Amino acid sequence: MPRLLLAAIFLLALFVVLCGPVFAVALRFKRAGDRGVMRPLPRVWLAQIVIAGSLVFAADAGGLANPGGWMAAVFAGVSLAGAAVFAAWRLARRRFTG
Predict the structure, then answer these.
(1) Each residue of 65-88: pLDDT tens digit?
(2) Of 41, 61, 69, 79, which has the most beta carbons under 10 Å away?
């Protein structure tokens, strides 16, 4: 039972690491007056989970050493890249649509 609880806490922490920065960017845009910023978040989170999962499986299939480190690096990288792309998309949308 403690292993299952530890695994659940670990997965929750990875989800927060993966989806937290995009949510922070969305909250910032919402405070700035962008009302529709929260609508695309579930699709962005799903895309991040799929990309991170495929990169983790690719790293494992490639036989890279230290799979835990690679998993943490992939999740952090996908998270920050997703937040940057989401912010750039919302800025471009706000600029070109008025």
Answers:
(1) 888 888 889 999 999 999 999 999
(2) 79
